[in-house]
């Protein structure tokens, strides 16, 4: 089987294309077409997102749409390219990296969300593939597709996923699998690593051009601020720090492990990007490491907030030639230390049904997490059962999660004393804050097993659940239950 595929007619998406990143010039990317795949087929289409983008789902699902989003034909008006960046991987400077298997088609003007870029992941080799094949497999593409939408459903800043296509083309990872392409959507795919690339090479003109593009397009308020004596680049670093802090607080509150927080996997817009070895916590184990490739536990769940700051420090170093003053750069980074704990406490209070901040709340939050960690309590189920209890249910289902019953009883007495007078209203709010359904690894695994047999219904079922994770969905009750014993043996790595 080869990659030689007849090129079908180009697809007209019916939306105007905008240059955006491509206008920066050839120093930032390489123009190239995706490499076609044989016999492409549709795996899943995110119809809700298509409609939000002003795209016709029926058009995307027909042969011309499948061809366009597999990389077998370039849509009319698109300018496909792969961008260059550098970065720190597992804390070590890796030098030049880049879009090794992702190809940006360009940005389209949407009815309600401004310009959104469309990127094909798994679309073939690029000049930045570093001996890789430039492909993604069905397994990893389904995981990214579903997790992008799961994070969006939870209200967490993220890239989105429009469609997954597959092909019988064999791809070798730990074993031989089949190829797939996921179409990602975001206002921009610029990463911390883009800035590190030009700064490390002392290409200061390109560094300034990139920073000016991102500021003028996404952070225009930095031009008018009085912060930092009007230094727009310092104000920009502060804004990125605050967005990153808010994103990290979201992750911690919901129990999300990213798994590979390299600087080249950090969005300059504070979006969650690059879903590889991710995991939502089952048991609450603060030092849980979800990435089998992370032998030293650098990206453990409880280390994520500090890693995010470390990555921001690397971004600050990259921007220092533009900021011009080390003290200003450090001052811009300080906002992370204020915003992250404030955002996390706000989200954790909401999980507990506490509408206002009071003295002693921090101690209550810490006691709650310590209690969960001591008995390795299932994180999503605890919060959902607690929500039902506060809304008017029985405490017994919550208590049953703990081995240390006296410890739980003492905690519950303190918690009940802190609850607001209108407990029913607090419980209803908690049910809209603590999801019933999260994208656990075993749920992904079951859908992937079906998909490998040609049955994609499990993917579509999970998509519907994670897009509305706070709803009851009684027909899918089992998917909100405890993970099976075999789930603890699932290994996810950087190839996931």
Automatic annotation (TrEMBL):
Name the source's superkingdom.
Answer: Bacteria
Q: Which UniProt keywords apply?
A: ATP-binding, Magnesium, Manganese, Metal-binding, Nucleotide-binding, Nucleotidyltransferase, Transferase
Per its record, the protein catalyses: L-tyrosyl-[protein] + UTP = O-(5'-uridylyl)-L-tyrosyl-[protein] + diphosphate; L-threonyl-[protein] + ATP = 3-O-(5'-adenylyl)-L-threonyl-[protein] + diphosphate; L-tyrosyl-[protein] + ATP = O-(5'-adenylyl)-L-tyrosyl-[protein] + diphosphate; L-seryl-[protein] + UTP = O-(5'-uridylyl)-L-seryl-[protein] + diphosphate
Q: A Pfam family in this protein?
A: SelO
Cofactor(s) needed, names only, are: Mg(2+); Mn(2+)
EC assignment: 2.7.7.-, 2.7.7.108
User: Which residue positions are annotated as catalytic?
Assistant: 264 (proton acceptor)
Q: Which residues bind Mg(2+)?
A: 265, 274
Top-tier EC class:
transferase
Q: Which residues bind ATP?
A: 98, 100-101, 121, 133-134, 184, 191, 274
By sequence similarity, the record places it as follows: Belongs to the SELO family.
Entry function: Nucleotidyltransferase involved in the post-translational modification of proteins. It can catalyze the addition of adenosine monophosphate (AMP) or uridine monophosphate (UMP) to a protein, resulting in modifications known as AMPylation and UMPylation.
Q: Tell me what this protein is called.
A: Protein nucleotidyltransferase YdiU
Q: What is the protein's species of origin?
A: Ramlibacter pallidus
